[in-house]
Write a structure and sequence with these properties.
By secondary structure, this protein is an alpha/beta fold. It is built from eight helices and eleven strands. The chain has an eight-stranded mixed β-sheet with strand order 4-7-6-5-8-9-11-10. The chain has a three-stranded antiparallel β-sheet with strand order 1-2-3, with no helix packed on it. The longest helix has 14 residues. It starts with 13 loop residues before the first strand and ends with a strand. The structure holds S-adenosylmethionine and zinc ion (ZN). Zinc ion (ZN) binds next to loops.
Amino acid sequence: MSVLICPVCKTRLKRNSFGYSCKKGHRFDRAAQGYVNLLTARHSGSGDDKGMVRARTDFLSKGYYRPLAERVAETAVKLTEGAEASVVIDCGCGEGYYTNILADKLPRAEVCGCDLSVSAVRHGASEAAARKLTNVTFFAASSFELPFADRSADLIVSIFSPVAAEEFARVLKKGGRLVIVSPSPIHLYGLKSVLYDEPYLNKPNEYGLKSFAPAGEERLEYKITLGSRKEIADLYAMTPYYYKTPPEGRERLSRLETLETDCGFDISVFRKK
Ligand SMILES: C[S@@+](CC[C@H](N)C(=O)[O-])C[C@H]1O[C@@H](n2cnc3c(N)ncnc32)[C@H](O)[C@@H]1O
Ligand SMILES: [Zn+2]
């Protein structure tokens, strides 16, 4: 990928047999699993931990969010239509569930997955290799300090991840698109009805996207029924409620064998001005 910049000195990174290096001699090796760690000391050790990564991987592998992945991929196909080789970055990509589906559906694009969590990108890269996807690369990197040159990307995708408005604006080309997926008001209401005595609807997020114009909005909602304690525990572990549920709520959830809940996703598209 020709648009990468060194996280230390910000000059261009060149690809070589061991990974990447810049002209000032900073060197970033490709790990055996295929990802490249571009985190500097400032960022290391953050992001989702191994347990959370495993819970999310197991849950996503059951296909409950596949309709969302398909819809995001269809949106990305439409937004990059006609372009020869688009650069597409999935920021805060987690273990690459959506990134690898994007790479599969956009065979002419160069797709990158970036996440602060090394365990997450390690998983994404292993999965890409297992599926023989050759147009996707995973980097450990922060969304707030992306290892990409100014105006180098055609599309940035951010799914349930931190929105770094200014950094996304720097990296996107003029007219490039940003797709943000966030929970709709009803998302996981069934789960919250078990956890809390007074469940609440999700509030919309404010992103401060000064350099962007709205370019489309879609809401995808459907119900799912989780069929085992393990699936329920995995879903719970990948939500923010995991950290803020009173013990009684946790106890109620642990007794359930099945759980029906709404899923709701707001898919918002923005155009870089
Ligand atoms: C809720 S998860 C979503 C992951 C993935 N997009 C998905 O939907 O499966 C949020 C992700 O953001 C990552 N993250 C948190 N802060 C970040 C940052 N500053 N830069 C990049 N990734 C970050 C976490 O490590 C985690 O993988
Ligand atoms: Zn350098």
